[in-house]
Amino acid sequence: MSMGQISSQSSDMTPLVRVIVAGAGSRGENYGHYASIHPERMKVVGVADPRKFARTKMQHQHNIADENIFEDWQSMAEREKFADAVVVSTPDRLHKEPAVAFAKKGYHILLEKPMATTPEDCTAIVEACTQSGVMLSVGHVLRYDPTIHLIKKLIDKGAIGDVVHIQHFEPVGFYHFAHSFVRGNWRNEAESSFALLAKSCHDIDLIHHWAGARRCVKVSSFGSLSHFRKEDKPPEAADRCVDCPIEAECSYSARKIYLDRVKRGQTGWPVSVICPNSYPDIESVTEALKTGPYGRCVYECDNDVCTNQVVNMEFEGGVTAAFSMVAFTEKICDRQTTIYGSKGEMRYGGHDVSVFDFLTQRWNVHHPHPDALKHYGMGGHGGADYHLIKAFISAVANNDPSLIRSGPEETLQSHLLVFDAERSRVESRVVYCGENDSDTADERNNIR
């Protein structure tokens, strides 16, 4: 049984993992759904959230006892340990304190990405988990996507020889960006974090993972906020879409993104996010658009995060990588990747991995095993949400941290790379990874 585990066991002698949830938003609720699919493996036994509707909803979903319902994570952490693991899915800027507190209590931790919003806080979380002897899994769900996982397997098998260059692109999607990064929770750096951390730490983590054991030695980045600015607002536009005379002509209309979906019976994401105190229907969504942040004109918001950004990286041994993130795309998060090697070229477009062999001059298409694609209704991130929580629960049940693909040390390194990239963008210079402000030019050259 895992370290400090207090769970009962199911009939097949596999430990039932008891989990508490700090933050009952969409991510916390989503991970909790695994307990409904596999009640013999996981049970949600406690929840903390300041919003009564959110915590009550999760209480009803999992039949949680009244004494295990909390208005804040602090009250839950003060209790004597009553579960094996905790899902920390609080807002980005509120990750460090609960993660450290629960680690010190002996809980294994599934921490939603990003780890935290400063390098110091990320480091503190890893140190707390290491010192407390608990497992840490960070919500880099793409590491668990069966097809993306196949990329790493093929690289390690030598399918394209030595990796020379990685080209990776994330199309955020025009209405996804308007929802999350113009009107939504991640629109403002002071309230959450910068876009590269909030949205694309997934992607930098993948590039870091594909590069293998090589350390990134230097990075440069460029990016800016385009279009979603007050100066781009049409003169006739109103401050809210429900009052706007030209709403029908706007691609980012809140009526189109939310209200039209509800009228078609679609109440999942993104509609499910905008009504924090009720289930979404025509009346509640209409009220949210009249009074809440998601009904605002996209040209009248307090957003300041980048809509487009590029990151260039050089790893040890001369391996290079280039990443691009763009808001203004038809496709939503359908990543595109090409990896160039000494013996071949690899392409990924969402459903399979194609490898061109320089020797045979032929393409071979690779698919993950069909069993790996099963997600039992947890289809978020292409089913990767299911595979992440499955791996975490299995790791806790079997006391086997090797089952976690997004563990503390490598995830910390990829997060530090994200911070270095943003530093490059803000300071308009190449950043040598791991440098200190006191480094001289000669010392930076020696890093190479």
UniProtKB/TrEMBL annotation:
It comes from Sphaeramia orbicularis. InterPro entries: Gfo/Idh/MocA-like_OxRdtase_C, Gfo/Idh/MocA-like_OxRdtase_N, Gfo/Idh/MocA_Oxidoreductases, NAD(P)-bd_dom_sf. One of its GO terms (molecular function) is nucleotide binding. Transmembrane segments: none annotated. SUPFAM superfamilies: Glyceraldehyde-3-phosphate dehydrogenase-like, C-terminal domain, NAD(P)-binding Rossmann-fold domains. Residues 152-418 form the Gfo/Idh/MocA-like oxidoreductase C-terminal domain. PANTHER family: BILIVERDIN REDUCTASE A, BINDING ROSSMANN FOLD OXIDOREDUCTASE, PUTATIVE (AFU_ORTHOLOGUE AFUA_4G00560)-RELATED. Residues 17-140 form the Gfo/Idh/MocA-like oxidoreductase N-terminal domain. This is Uncharacterized LOC115423209. It holds the Pfam family GFO_IDH_MocA.
